[in-house]
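Issue 218. Parser rejects a valid record. Input:
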Amino acid sequence: MFYEVRVFNAKGDLKKVVTPKKLSNRFWKGGEQNLIDFSDKGNRSQEWGNQKNSKDEYQLEDS
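Output the parser choked on:
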């Protein structure tokens, strides 16, 4: 299921509206290129912890 998408410019004015039908057609024409590969199911919790720590380090350095 796709929902209507509204695209705004930097000023906040409505630029265009993309209908659910157009979104659906675009998705199905793309085929498997749009799908996310979940086959690599490594230990994501450790990876998430490492990313979170490194993000905290960058925030400290920027301050």
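Fixed in the parser; the record now loads. The first helix runs from residue 20 to 30.
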